[in-house]
């Protein structure tokens, strides 16, 4: 079993920044891909950013140039630095990883961007 716990969400004004953290614990093997997803009210969950074990990141077009994903493999942590936040970034942000063909999700952390 793997547990994922996100933190760092909150309320911020447009143009501001937040840093989300996700801690993976439990029976964690050598994790390859870790992701951040988000889900806004009334919308489907969408992939925001993904990173491989070697640190390279891929981003949704809507966040490119504003968000940066990073990880600390020794601590089984993944981070999402969010800058130039917009009201449309308001959502619950979820950490995700897949291990042994099982998808694991955190409980989510709320990010609210006011205009």
Task: Write up what this structure looks like.
This protein is mainly β. Strands 2, 4, 5, 6, 9, 10 and 11 form a 7-stranded mixed sheet that branches. A 4-stranded antiparallel sheet has the order 1-3-8-7, with no helix packed on it. The mean pLDDT is 93. The termini are far apart. It has strands at 2-7, 10-13, 18-26, 34-39, 46-51, 57-59, 67-72, 77-82, 91-99, 102-105, 109-114. The protein has no helices and 11 strands.
List the helices and strands and how they pair.
Layout: E1 2-7, E2 10-13, E3 18-26, E4 34-39, E5 46-51, E6 57-59, E7 67-72, E8 77-82, E9 91-99, E10 102-105, E11 109-114
Parallel strand pairs: 2-11
Antiparallel strand pairs: 1-3, 3-8, 4-5, 4-9, 5-6, 7-8, 9-10, 9-11
List keywords for this structure.
single chain, 115 residues, mainly beta, seven-stranded mixed β-sheet, four-stranded antiparallel β-sheet, 11 strands, 0% helix, 57% strand, globular
Question: What does this entry show, briefly?
Answer:
The protein is mostly beta strands and 115 residues long. The chain has strands at 2-7, 10-13, 18-26, 34-39, 46-51, 57-59, 67-72, 77-82, 91-99, 102-105, 109-114. The protein starts with a strand and ends with a strand.
- Calculate the terminal CA-CA distance, rounded to whole Å: 40 Å
SS-derived structural category: mainly beta
Q: Give the oligomeric state.
A: single chain
| Tally of contiguous helical segments | 0
The count of DSSP E runs of length 2 or more, i.e. the number of strands, is: 11
The rough form would be described as globular
Roughly what percent helix?
under 10%
Report the order of strands and helices: EEEEEEEEEEE
């Amino acid at each position: 079993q793997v547990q994922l716990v996100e933190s760092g969400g909150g309320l911020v004004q447009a143009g501001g920044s937040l840093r989300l953290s996700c801690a993976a614990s439990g029976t964690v093997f050598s994790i390859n891909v870790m992701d951040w997803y988000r889900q806004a009210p009334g919308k489907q969950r969408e992939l925001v950013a993904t990173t491989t074990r070697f640190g390279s990141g891929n981003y949704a077009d809507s966040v490119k140039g504003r968000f940066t994903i990073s990880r600390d493999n020794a601590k089984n942590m993944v981070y999402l630095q969010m800058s130039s936040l917009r009201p449309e970034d308001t959502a619950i942000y979820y950490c995700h990883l897949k291990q042994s063909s099982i998808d694991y999700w955190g409980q989510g952390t709320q990010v609210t961007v006011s205009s």
